[in-house]
Amino acid sequence: MTRWTLAMAVAAALGGLIAAPALAQNAAAKPKPKTAESAPTVTVVVTNSRKTDLVELQAAESGSPSWKRVLGALKAGKQAPAKLPQGFNCRVDLHGTFANGESMEASDVDVCAQKTLNLTD
Predict the structure, then answer these.
(1) β partners of residue 110
(2) How confident is residue 85, by pLDDT bands cut at 50, 70 and 90?
(3) CA gyration radius for the chain?
(4) What's the start-to-end Cα distance of the chain, in Å?
């Protein structure tokens, strides 16, 4: 009987030691909010008025080298919403690439005042 009680006490003590770190690991594994997702954005309607399909539209806060894809493929003559970075002063630079190999650039676009972007030839 004494051996059984001692074995139970040791098992309980070990279980407590094993369970405590496991609980700590679970608490530490909680995902942290991503800062990029919490950055303010502005939704604008992009219209592809070019004769060729848009492959990708990228945006960066005006003057920043950090480009972010904001819109994927968009057929010629179609439109789609895009979430653009609002940035400090609502101004962004845009870079679009098209299926025919051409590209377009637009600098210092005020996306807070202009809620539509019309991509033209």
Answers:
(1) 91
(2) confident
(3) 27
(4) 90
Provide the 10 A C-beta neighbour count for residue 61. 20
Percentage of residues of the chain with pLDDT beyond 90: 59
Under DSSP, the state recorded for 31 is P
Rounded CA-CA distance 90/113 in Å is 8
Residue 2's alpha-carbon distances to 12, 14, 16, 40, 115, in angstroms, are 15, 18, 21, 66, 79
Report how far residue 63's alpha carbon sits from residue 59's, in angstroms, rounded to the nearest whole number: 11
Neighbours of 78 (CB within 10 A): 13
Q: Which among 49, 52, 94, 96 has a CA at the least distance from the CA of 72?
A: 96
Return d(Cα 25, Cα 88) in angstroms, integer: 38
